[in-house]
Design goal:
With 337 residues, the protein is α/β, with parallel strands linked by helices. The chain contains 12 helices and 12 strands. It folds into 2 domains: 192 residues, 3-Layer(aba) Sandwich (Rossmann fold); 91 residues, no CATH class.
């Protein structure tokens, strides 16, 4: 199946110092790299997950796709149309096909606008002449809310209700791709299930493709088809979700899976725990950037950056010593250096 959305070697940088200040302080490269040359494809009707700790670059990548952050290198194409380098006015057509659900469901809604106005806003921005009241009612019904919510303000909504309004607004222009940033964040477990079921139903009925950004591994395990694990702006492992959960190839992936609560105390004892702090983007470690937290690190890891290479059919990992089965891996420790 052809890829609907394709990213190739995407790099997103942010300036940390002004030009004059950088010259005075002798800073040769006054930037930080939030996203480092990542590549992936999203097919029609597929769900692709981006997983990583806070600050790993997941949201920045999502914002770069929709034009809210600028990619300095690489390519982002939707149905073959290159998006990198488009001006804001040119992005208007793209945003009819790619919508975004923002992380905080209530904060993403204007406190001065009713639900009706929030849902109708995309039609006004794009100059689409429709009966906005009827469209707002239709979209509310689509996400399981009664039209009585049309006059409500964001502060009158629960987290789950606000999330449903966000879904309705994202669906307004009938997009083909929805970027969902932490779609279940801050919601009770039961409400999380309702939102995920809603998104699955809409995907089946409307043929939507999802890019889901999350750190919630149980969620992404049940809703995504393929998965990318991000660390310091790079993809360290990519592949089919079921394969990654069954046999992670990268130590960082193994550590993330180990952090998922396990009710069986016997299974908790031998799990790998990630230690140490995430390095600063302004002071990236030499070699493999994960080696400062990796219990399997060897001398080569401290000196040479690994390539993102194929380790199995449909699987790629950025590791010098990827393991096919976590049970075969043993911490090497400092002595290996």
């Amino acid at each position: 199946m052809p890829e609907l959305l394709k990213a190739d070697g995407v790099r997103v940088r942010f300036r940390t110092s002004g030009l004059v200040n950088a010259l005075l302080k002798g800073i040769a490269d006054p930037y930080i790299d939030a996203v480092m040359r990542v590549s992936f494809g999203l097919r029609q009707g597929e769900t692709f997950g981006l997983v990583g700790e806070s600050g790993s670059g997941k949201t920045t990548l999502g914002r770069a796709i929709i034009g809210l952050a600028r990619a300095q290198e690489g390519s982002i194409a939707f149905e073959g149309q290159e998006l990198v380098g488009l001006k804001d006015a040119q992005y208007r057509g793209v945003r009819r096909n790619i919508a975004m659900m923002f992380q905080d469901p209530i904060a993403s809604l204007s406190p001065r606008k009713t639900v009706r106005n929030a849902i109708a806003e995309p039609f006004r921005i794009h100059g689409i002449a429709k009966d906005l009241g009827e469209e707002a009612r239709r979209l509310l019904r689509l996400v399981g809310l009664h039209e009585g919510f049309l006059g409500a303000y964001p502060h009158q909504l629960s987290g789950g209700q606000a999330r449903r309004v966000g879904v309705a607004r994202a669906l307004a222009l009938e997009p083909r791709v929805i970027i969902a940033d932490e779609p279940t964040a801050g919601l009770d477990v039961s409400v999380q299930g309702e939102i995920l079921n809603l998104m699955n139903r809409l995907q089946r009925e409307l043929g939507l493709s999802y890019l889901i950004i999350t750190h919630n591994l149980p969620v992404v395990r049940h809703v995504s088809d393929r998965l990318a694990i991000m660390y310091l702006g790079r993809f360290v492992e990519t592949g089919a979700t079921k394969d990654i959960f069954a046999k992670p190839a990268h130590p960082y992936t193994l550590g993330l899976l180990a952090a998922v609560p396990e009710p069986d105390p016997d299974k908790r004892r031998d799990k790998l725990e990630l230690e140490g702090e995430i390095p600063s983007l302004m002071n990236r470690p030499r070699g493999c950037e994960f080696h400062t937290r990796c219990p399997f690190a060897q001398a080569k890891c401290r000196e040479t950056a690994p390539e993102h290479r194929k380790v199995a059919e449909g699987r790629w990992a950025s590791c010098h010593y990827p393991f096919p089965d976590p049970a075969d891996a043993r911490p090497v420790g400092p002595a290996a250096a």
